[in-house]
């Protein structure tokens, strides 16, 4: 093995499917690396993940320990750099532990909503006709409701709680993915390479799964990263309204909600978790924009 | 009797294809008949919009047939039985940049037909197919965008031959390629036809390419058949219709000896 | 004095896998004549044509020891100066009219746009000029074409409209990049004849870029043959058959001929020293 890793990655004649795929991913990564804003976004998200994974190391206090003697300390107080809330809990530590909940919600939504959307969108787009009409009208119905209202209604039925909040968000988040996937499928459906695989006798399932979906995936992934900001905000919104995560869990929306009472005198209680939401949303948006340049099939094929 | 069947391996009888676009009916092909003998090479020539490619697509069930019949070896084609049809008829498309899946490696593209038909021995067959079309085995795990146009078209030809079909439909297989690459691909197609005993139905706008590849030629215009010619009639300019003669005149610089010294 | 002088033109694209040298030291000069640039895809012929108008987008870079058009140094000209040159003095016709015409504007409006804005003509006069331009490219009923949408035109018609549009400001140099390869053979000849006649009448310089050696030889005075970003041979069009370079000879021989023998076509041998130079 005299070959270096980078030679192996950029080998023009890979010797296995895996090497070919990893090589392509490496090239995409090189392209992404040129985009400084996307790298900033990625850094924010990596930091969020690190914070969630190693929360005990980052946090200076236990997020649940109440200390009424030290309630509502302003930011900059030694030991409590971001201040404390109305129960005297360290805001920084609560934000750090809150990252876990935020990530949990994001991850759950990211593995459910796009999958539902992708399946419905590609099937509707590929078959067309009556299948398309029925599936897309259902999508329209979901789209016609304001997302938060629909999520509220679902949580009201299912009862408050973190899992139900995620379920509600996922059920309201899929229609845009279905639209994106359908639009992409319509352009791919009549291409020569789909005609070629049809001529080889492939069935609809194989074509949709193996040939159409890979073409829709990039747009959906881009859409997912761009939507993550919205998901965080809805989760925060549900938390704020008391329908999502229940106290005393340190969820960022919930923290804003509890800070609302002192917004004018002790502004930091609501502002600090708000800043966290803002930063993470920004991170996802920047990364999504960068990914669009890298993954978009129209720009990558050239 | 057997001879008759042999000479009518592909039979197209009064074929019409009508598209419905925005409430307007477009007659892409009107009452075209032709027949191709087994292991023969038949050419369809015409300008854009003459319906020549639509005939190929109609054979494969990719275009809506509104009238007439298509028979292969005496049986009406049944594209609903996709697998049986696939092992009999395959197609090579015009644009090699659009006919290979951009996110599949060459290996995936070539092994897909084997997977669909449950054929074993994928590795050996893929390597052999690459060899057959003159591509090095090291290309196996490349993506289409890492290949040139000519190499892509070779992959598309290899894919079409994976199921060992009897009939190859060629839709302008070289019009997107450079002249020197066109020569290589045409040579390859001729070699493969001889080796595999294939029947070709080829579409092109280039009379010289059709002349080089085909024994019989059908000239088409506006969706209708204009004139059917044997190869010899074309070379000696024995055409009966005005349009065929015009087409021939416009290709004058493609004549043997037109610009060469001899 | 020559209209265009180019010395040692180099165009480089920086990609993530390293720089790609699309044009590697091309030099030529052009008077009021018809110059053909021939080569296969990837030979750099289109990039050469586009760099004359400085229409290369980043990550592409244009470098040249000398690039002068009618005394103007194109390497130093500002983007504003270039904009003033493109159109009135330097024009380009692209391969496919479908992508060059604005699909949501009537043909007439597109033809008249420049006349109204740049030359500040009145509507009636602009219209008269536009119709005259359409007549010059042998469109039979210019009045109807003026009112047509681009998608209603056939390929040949669209390409004629494009040529008419480029010729309205009477440029000194026209760069035609494969203007006929999207067209049917019978239309191809007509469009070429129109282009040829206009160049002769108006005394323009013409750079005709094509992959078709014989087409170029028929319509040009001089031919440059390009391969991998370099000029491998320069010929008077009439001497095409005396081409010395193996690449030029290969290009000529590899085409099938009507009535030709049924033996394998001679391929282009790329094993010579020239191929890797």
From TrEMBL, chain A:
It is found in: Cell membrane. It comes from the Bacteria. Residues 99-288 form the ABC transmembrane type-1 domain. InterPro entries: ABC_transport_permease (IPR053385), BP-dependent_transpt_permease (IPR050366), MetI-like (IPR000515), MetI-like_sf (IPR035906), OppC_N (IPR025966). PROSITE patterns: ABC_TM1 (PS50928). It holds the Pfam family BPD_transp_1. Its main location: membrane. Keywords: Cell membrane, Membrane, Peptide transport, Protein transport, Transmembrane, Transmembrane helix, Transport. The chain crosses the membrane at residues 37-59, 101-127, 148-173, 224-246, 266-288. One of its GO terms (biological process) is peptide transport. It is a multi-pass membrane protein. One of its GO terms (cellular component) is plasma membrane. The keyword Secreted does not apply. NCBIfam families: Opp2C. Belongs to the binding-protein-dependent transport system permease family. OppBC subfamily. This is Peptide/nickel transport system permease protein.
UniProtKB/TrEMBL annotation, chain B:
InterPro entries: AAA+_ATPase (IPR003593), ABC_transp_ATP-bind (IPR050319), ABC_transporter-like_ATP-bd (IPR003439), ABC_transporter-like_CS (IPR017871), P-loop_NTPase (IPR027417). Keywords: ATP-binding, Cell inner membrane, Cell membrane, Membrane, Nucleotide-binding, Translocase, Transport. Pfam families: ABC_tran. It is found in: Cell inner membrane; Membrane. GO terms for biological process: transmembrane transport. This is Glutathione import ATP-binding protein GsiA. Residues 10-247 form the ABC transporter domain. Belongs to the ABC transporter superfamily. Glutathione importer (TC 3.A.1.5.11) family. GO terms for cellular component: plasma membrane. It is a peripheral membrane protein. It comes from the Bacteria. GO terms for molecular function: ATP binding; ATP hydrolysis activity. Part of the ABC transporter complex GsiABCD involved in glutathione import. Responsible for energy coupling to the transport system. The complex is composed of two ATP-binding proteins (GsiA), two transmembrane proteins (GsiC and GsiD) and a solute-binding protein (GsiB). It catalyses: glutathione(out) + ATP + H2O = glutathione(in) + ADP + phosphate + H(+). Its EC number is 7.4.2.10.
UniProtKB/TrEMBL annotation, chain C:
PROSITE patterns: ABC_TRANSPORTER_2 (PS50893). GO terms for biological process: transmembrane transport. It is a peripheral membrane protein. It is found in: Cell inner membrane. Residues 4-253 form the ABC transporter domain. It holds the Pfam family ABC_tran. GO terms for cellular component: plasma membrane. InterPro entries: AAA+_ATPase, ABC_Ni/Peptide_Import, ABC_transporter-like_ATP-bd, P-loop_NTPase. SMART domains: AAA (SM00382). Its main location: membrane. Keywords: ATP-binding, Cell membrane, Membrane, Nucleotide-binding, Transport. GO terms for molecular function: ATP binding; ATP hydrolysis activity. Belongs to the ABC transporter superfamily. PANTHER family: DIPEPTIDE TRANSPORT ATP-BINDING PROTEIN DPPD (PTHR43297:SF2), OLIGOPEPTIDE TRANSPORT ATP-BINDING PROTEIN APPD (PTHR43297). This is Peptide/nickel transport system ATP-binding protein. It comes from Rhodobacter maris. The lineage of its organism: Bacteria, Pseudomonadati, Pseudomonadota, Alphaproteobacteria, Rhodobacterales.
